[in-house]
Amino acid sequence: MIYRFSWHFPADHPALAGHFPGQPIAPGAVLLDRLQLFAGRVPALGDGPWRIERAKFVQTARPGDTLAFVLETTQAGTFAFRIERDASLIAHGLFAVTPALST
């Protein structure tokens, strides 16, 4: 199943301070954090925590961009993702649910 979420990256986001002066870009960690928030809204994915199996950033996201987060369930406990701007790929990868620690 495919799930889509949209997010406008605000020009005044606190992560932009110093990242990079004069040429601000969205830190990858901010995008992955937003991805996890959206994944938490998908009942089929559980409530996490998740681990990043792989992530590849192919373009930068800039302040003011509206980004599409596309999550696709693949098998129990995993989901593939894409982050896009105007149908142009920003990042893609795979997340998996982290198993609970046994005591």
Task: Report mean pLDDT, rounded to a whole number.
Answer: 89
The share of residues in helices is 10-25%
Count of DSSP H/I helices: 1
Q: What is the gyration radius calculated from CA atoms?
A: 14 Å
Tell me, briefly, the overall form. Answer: elongated
- Structural classification: mainly beta
Count of β-strands? 5
Task: Please give a structural write-up.
The chain is mostly beta strands and 103 residues long. It has a domain at 18-80. The protein is built from one helix and five strands; from the N terminus they run βαββββ. It has one helix at residues 28-39; strands at residues 2-8, 50-57, 66-75, 78-85, 88-97. It has a five-stranded antiparallel sheet, covered by helices on one side. A hairpin with a 2-residue loop joins strand 4 (78-85) and strand 5. The longest helix has 12 residues, at 28-39. The model has no long low-confidence stretch (mean pLDDT 89).
Condensed summary:
The protein is mostly beta strands and 103 residues long.
Break the fold down into its secondary structure elements and pairings.
Layout: E1 2-8, H1 28-39, E2 50-57, E3 66-75, E4 78-85, E5 88-97
Antiparallel strand pairs: 1-3, 2-5, 3-4, 4-5
